[in-house]
Backbone:
């Protein structure tokens, strides 16, 4: 997908090669002077490696004509990333910061093109950590075919931030033939996910090591624009599409059900769940439907296209375990959009929105 | 998942469902009014709703959701005490997750945390002890709550703190005991229960013997039940079978975990650390004699109530709340006049709406499927409204008498006799 890396027509700015000597970040690195410039050039500009950023202007500038070749509408999004720990099995805050924003663009049918990267650093953070995070960001950016073209660096006093916060904003262009919205779910539609649910949430829980739990679970953090492109090729009329991050699949489905005023009926038996995730949830009294994902999407597609979409997904690395997990039904009068699950046991229950965070049960 | 899925087998469930239907059709009493079986434990309530078990039963059998969710029976005054402790600048207040949202008269622990109190969620009291070791210049308080299920781990933690001389650790003890509570329910005049599903994990600690009085004195059948959906169905079948054959016995369906005598080691730790309080205030149920425990004098240094100035104010339950009636099974959650209107999981008035084990939250989250139920709710709400003029809105601190001849569970002599007598 590297051929989609944008190549803005801008001359390479002449620049000296700066190196940061300090092992950790201090307040001077946010002071606007030479120390800051050294940090930016050494860590970010050299890693993100593109002429637009290297020009070190206050903004990135793109030609409209080039954007228009990808579609007819601009998509713009932003997201901030705070995660503890910064590094976890399957990813780190950098992979999250790029995949998350890429995915937010891709789920409306946009081709993601440019990202910004603003960091808030707590003084004392090792520069090496920053380098590793920047390298992760660039790796995912290359995988997703986007360029990180502008940024900002702030350093705050110890205690005023938790190690490192990242904000990324992204610009993409929406394909001409696509109209995706949470309001578009229709009775008869099929609900599809692209693989195992709750891996990210479970991996973070285990990585925090507050629990005496050991499980071999990795975050599913990855960019989904490639997968979404093949899905849209298979069926440009996908009705709803969202990545299921915080709040999990249950939250996304509730948003669909409410916006479209329909009932969504899930089949518990068809939910793709890893044994490890199921086990961790059993022990902690959590529901995997509410666990966070960072590389999972929920799609609502017309029934006659469901087979094609599933086949296309399963042929893509990010969709190998894709599964149809439910169907859309006519909304119950007065119920105002419900998600109902047919349990494996033979009963049924409502899958509601969470009020706040899922809190583990006492006993 | 091995050893779990086996207990969720839909084919076995179908068979049991059929058996239960056949059984109930032979019970004469069920023809006059629905049989009411109380599941005492909040964990059971959670399973019943999560798997939609009520819908699998005939209309002639009803679950009555009992008071066995420790978060749900916590009175407002105790939450206020927690907040007061947590807001002391030297304190790190540690708690189980689902106690964070329980409303106090002014705020919940979650709100106190947002306002700057150092409130931390832990998964075990030992985590709290670790925090105390890591923060020697701070006072770490663990919010101990729960029935006999969680009591042993709290007791062990106090014993460890004592042995390791960790003096910046203390326990805010809100542990409660099950037997006086069941008695209070059985003595309640407005209740017509036909039998019980006995708590599984409490019984793992105390054994099945302490329930003998339910069968012998009150002539009610009880089956100690496990927490998987097949456990619940099988236990229900066992209780109904007792009713059909006119027996009143203590049966044990959860034999893979629960023994007659319980866990001697756990009981001995509990005995060393705790003693019975004369009474303890319950949300909705009022004061129940001998239903709570406190830290013994020997471990006073680890008792937050002795160590700090706890306001210990008695706060009346909100007027509109019918938690008491729901807890005793007099009304169903959706028949409460504030259910789903003034009291929702987003802004709970009563704590039954907070915990996922609370009957109201379970009803709200899992139970609103059937629109006829929603209609029923409206009708029920109207009828409650019209009856409101005469009926007290909340049982409040009315108090429920406890029969003096049955010793409270934690009573030293009673323990000694049950454990020693059968060892």
Residues:
């Amino acid at each position: 997908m590297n051929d989609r890396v944008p190549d803005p027509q801008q001359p390479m700015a002449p620049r000296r090669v700066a190196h940061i000597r300090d092992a950790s970040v201090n307040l001077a690195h946010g002071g606007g002077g030479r120390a800051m410039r050294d940090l930016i050039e050494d860590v970010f500009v050299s890693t993100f490696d593109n002429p637009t950023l290297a020009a070190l202007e206050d903004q990135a500038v793109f030609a409209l004509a080039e954007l228009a070749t990808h579609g007819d509408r601009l998509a713009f999004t932003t997201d901030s990333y705070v995660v503890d720990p910064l590094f976890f099995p399957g990813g780190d805050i950098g992979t999250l910061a790029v995949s998350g924003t890429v995915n937010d663009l891709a789920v409306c049918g946009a081709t993601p093109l440019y990202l910004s990267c603003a960091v808030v650093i707590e003084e004392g953070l090792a520069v090496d950590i920053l380098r590793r995070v920047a390298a992760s960001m660039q790796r995912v950016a290359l995988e997703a075919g986007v360029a990180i073209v502008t940024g900002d660096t702030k350093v705050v006093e110890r205690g005023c931030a938790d190690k490192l916060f990242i904000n990324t904003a992204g610009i993409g262009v929406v394909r001409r033939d696509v109209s995706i919205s949470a309001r578009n779910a229709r009775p008869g539609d099929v609900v599809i996910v692209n693989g195992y649910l709750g891996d990210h949430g479970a991996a973070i829980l285990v990585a925090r090591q507050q629990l005496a739990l050991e499980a071999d679970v990795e975050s599913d953090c990855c960019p989904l624009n490639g997968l979404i492109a093949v899905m849209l090729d298979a069926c440009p009329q996908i009705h709803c599409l969202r990545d299921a991050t915080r709040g999990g699949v249950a939250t996304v489905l509730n948003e669909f059900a409410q916006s479209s005023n329909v009932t969504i009926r899930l089949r518990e038996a068809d939910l793709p769940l890893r044994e490890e995730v199921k086990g961790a949830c059993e022990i902690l009294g959590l529901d995997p439907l509410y666990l966070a994902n960072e590389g999972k999407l929920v799609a609502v597609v017309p029934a006659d296209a469901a087979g094609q979409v599933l086949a296309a997904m399963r042929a893509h690395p990010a969709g190998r375990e894709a599964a149809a997990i439910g169907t859309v039904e006519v909304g119950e009068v007065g119920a105002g959009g419900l998600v109902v699950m047919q349990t494996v046991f033979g009963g049924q229950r409502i899958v509601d929105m969470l009020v706040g965070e899922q809190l583990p049960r006492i006993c | 998942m091995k050893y779990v899925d086996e207990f969720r087998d839909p084919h076995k469930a179908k068979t049991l469902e059929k058996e239960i239907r056949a059984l109930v059709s032979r019970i004469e009493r069920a023809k006059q009014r629905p049989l009411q079986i109380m599941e005492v434990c909040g964990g059971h309530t959670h399973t019943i709703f999560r798997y939609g078990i009520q819908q699998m039963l005939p209309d002639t059998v009803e679950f009555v959701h009992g008071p066995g969710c420790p978060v749900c029976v916590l009175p407002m005054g105790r939450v206020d005490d927690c907040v007061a402790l947590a807001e002391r600048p030297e304190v790190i207040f540690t708690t189980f997750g689902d106690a964070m949202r329980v409303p106090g008269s002014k705020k919940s622990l979650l709100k106190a945390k947002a306002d700057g109190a150092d409130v931390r969620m832990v998964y075990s009291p030992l985590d709290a002890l670790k925090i105390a070791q890591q923060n020697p210049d701070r006072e770490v308080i663990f919010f101990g709550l729960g029935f006999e299920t969680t009591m042993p781990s709290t007791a062990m933690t106090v014993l460890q703190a004592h042995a390791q001389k960790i003096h910046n650790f203390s326990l805010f003890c809100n542990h409660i005991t099950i037997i006086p509570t069941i008695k209070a329910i059985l003595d309640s005049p407005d209740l017509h229960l036909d039998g019980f599903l006995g708590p599984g994990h409490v019984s793992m600690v105390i054994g099945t013997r302490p329930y003998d009085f339910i069968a012998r004195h009150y002539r009610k059948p009880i089956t100690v039940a496990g927490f998987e959906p097949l456990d619940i169905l099988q236990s229900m079948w066992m209780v109904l079978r007792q009713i059909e054959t006119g027996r009143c016995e203590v049966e044990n369906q959860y034999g893979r975990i629960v023994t007659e005598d319980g866990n001697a080691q756990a009981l001995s730790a509990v005995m060393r650390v705790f003693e019975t309080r004369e009474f303890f205030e319950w949300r909705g149920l009022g004061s129940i004699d001998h239903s709570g425990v406190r830290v013994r004098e020997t471990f006073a240094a680890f008792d937050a109530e002795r160590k700090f100035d706890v306001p210990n104010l008695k706060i009346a339950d909100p007027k509109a709340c019918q938690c008491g009636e729901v807890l005793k099974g007099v009304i169903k959650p959706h028949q409460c006049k504030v259910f789903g209107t003034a009291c929702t999981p987003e802004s709970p008035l009563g704590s039954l709406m907070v915990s996922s084990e609370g009957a109201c939250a379970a009803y709200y989250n899992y139970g609103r499927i059937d629109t006829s139920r929603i209609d029923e709710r409206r009708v029920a709400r109207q009828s409650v409204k019209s009856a409101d003029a005469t009926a007290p809105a909340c049982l409040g601190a009315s108090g429920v008498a406890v029969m003096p001849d049955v010793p409270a569970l934690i009573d030293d002599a009673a323990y000694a006799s049950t454990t020693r007598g059968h060892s």
Observations:
- Chain B has one domain: 1-423.
- Residues 369-423 of chain B have pLDDT under 50 and may be disordered.
